[in-house]
Amino acid sequence: MSLFDEERPVRKTVHDIGQDLSLLSVDELKIRIELLKSEISRLEAEAVAKGASRAAADSLFKR
User: Fold this and answer.
1) Which residues of the chain carry a pLDDT beneath 50?
2) Does the predicted model carry a pTM greater than 0.70?
């Protein structure tokens, strides 16, 4: 184990849906909220991109 804190690896914040939130601080909750908001944005962007691809494919194969 390291003697110095700066040598410790930084743990990535992960949130599991349904996880017990009672042990998290307000700051940790805010971090999780921002993490989830950015993940929602990423998911929405991917859904739009896939929808555009599907619409292009549908228009190509329609008669």
Assistant:
1) none
2) no
